[in-house]
Amino acid sequence: MKYTLSQIATLCGGQLIGANRTVEEITVDSRNYTYGERSMMAAIRGRNHDGHDFIEAAYAHGVRAFLVAREPEVAHTDAGYVVVADTLVALQSLAADYRARFAGRVVAITGSTDKTLVKEWCAQSAPDGVKIFRSPKSYNSQLGVALSLLMIEGDEQVAIVEAGISHPNQMARLEEMIRPDLAIITNIGEQHAENFESLETK
Question: Residue 13 has what DSSP assignment?
Fold first, then answer.
C-alpha cells in the first residue's frame, strides 16, 4: 500500500494536521519497533487500552504518521495526524479502498471453527508459481481484516482473508471491506454464538 496522509484524510472524511507524510504500512501497536517513517500508527480504542496513550512512544521509535480520533496534545512539526471521528471505521474505509484497487482474486474464509486451518490448507495447495497472500495468524476481526487487507503487496494473484464475527451485523461490515470473489464457509455452529439469538441471525 502507498498513500499520502492527505489522501487518507479524504478517503476517511478526516482532517490532516501537520506534515503530509507518505504511508506504506500500518501499525496499531507502539511496541512494534520495526516500524518507522513510512508507517502510520492507528490509535485504536480497545476494552483495556487506548492507542492514543502510546502515540508519543511510537513517535520516539520513528513513527511519523498517525490516525487519531482527537487532536494530539503534542503535535510534532515533522509528523502528520489525520483526525477522524472513529479510527477503526476510518481504517476499514482505507482497507476497502485498497481492496478495490487489488487486481487479483480474493477468497474469504469464515465459519465457527477451523477458519485458520482451512486458510493454511488453501494457501499450501496453491500451484507452484502462483503468488498468494494469506492473512496472518487469526486476523479475522473487524480490526484484523482491515489490517490484513492493507498488508497485501498488490502483485499477488490470490489473497486469502479470514473473517470472523462475534456480534450481529459484523459480517456485513467485513464483506464491504473484503468483497470476495469466492467465499468458503467451514461450518456454522454454536461456538462464539453467545451474542446471537439463534444460528439464523448470524
Answer: T
Instruction: Tell me the C-alpha distance between 191 and 93, whole Å.
Output: 29
Report the relative pairing of strands 80-83 and 15-18 from DSSP bridges: antiparallel
Write down how long the chain is. 202
- From CA 55, how far away is CA 197, in angstroms rounded? 39
Q: Is the pTM here over 0.70, yes or no?
A: yes
* HEC sequence for 85-107: CCHHHHHHHHHHHHHHHCCCEEE
Retrieve residue 68's grid coordinates: 487519531
| Spatial distance between the Cα atoms of 162 and 71, rounded to a whole number of angstroms | 33
Q: Are 79 and 85 in contact (CB under 8 A)?
A: no
Q: What is the pLDDT of residues 133-171, one digit of tens each?
A: 999 988 999 999 999 999 999 999 999 999 998 778 899
Cell readout for 126 is 496453491
